Amino acid sequence: MPEECLFCRIVAGEVPADVVCRGRGMVAFHDIAPKAPVHVLVVPERHVDSMAGVEGLTPGERSDMLAVIAAVARDQGLEPTGYRVVANHGADALQSVFHLHWHVMGGTRLSDSM
Ligand code: AMP
Fold first, then answer.
1. Residue 30 annotated among the catalytic residues of the structure
2. Are 29 and 44 in contact, with CB atoms under 8 Å apart?
3. Mutation choice for ligand 1 from 9, 15, 32, CB with most ligand atoms inside 8 A
4. Distance CA 87, CA 62 (A)
5. pLDDT (tens digit per residue) in 59-84
6. Helix (H) or strand (E) holding 114
7. CA–CA separation, 48 and 100 (whole Å)
């Protein structure tokens, strides 16, 4: 765990976050600057920098990550109306936190430019 990694520190409970759920090697918490009425981040407990490092997770973790994303969206009530799942990698995508995370966004009609 890189000591300076913000999301590692949230996973470790060293930095407060509005946690939605923990389990299956994942932590989900509300984005501090939400871009939609519901904006939850799902992060693996194990540090990898981004989607480009996904091979650093076990097959079980990769599988659980998708299941947790879908469960979070369902638990947030987004399934009937829809939601978007985004993972940014690198400069062109404006990645700002270098610990793999999935944005789960919904609760309104989302922009087609995102
Ligand atoms: P990205 O630009 O894809 O790297 O997304 C990073 C996200 O982390 C942004 O949407 C930020 O608003 C969010 N964020 C940054 N710091 C925190 C924090 N302390 N707690 C929750 N979300 C955060």
1. no
2. no
3. 32
4. 14
5. 999 999 999 999 999 999 999 999 99
6. none
7. 6
Q: Is 95 in the pocket of ligand 1 (CB under 6 A)?
A: yes
Residue of 20, 31, 89 to mutate, ligand 1, most atoms within 8 A of C-beta: 31
- For ligand 1, is residue 17 a contact (CB within 6 Å)? yes
What residue type is assigned to position 79 of the chain?
A: E
All structural domains of the chain = 6-106 (3.30.428.10)
Q: In angstroms, rounded to a whole number, what is the distance separating the alpha carbons of residues 85 and 15?
A: 24
How far apart are alpha carbons 88 and 86 in whole angstroms? 6
**Rounded Cα gap, residues 44 and 23, in angstroms:** 10
Task: Say what the pTM is.
Answer: 0.97
Q: Tell which atom from ligand 1 comes closest to the C-alpha of 97.
A: 4
What is the rounded CA–CA span in Å between residue 42 and residue 26?
Answer: 7
* Percent of all residues in the chain with a pLDDT value above 70, rounded to a whole number: 98
Query: Among residues 27, 76, 92, which one has the least CA distance to residue 84?
Result: 76
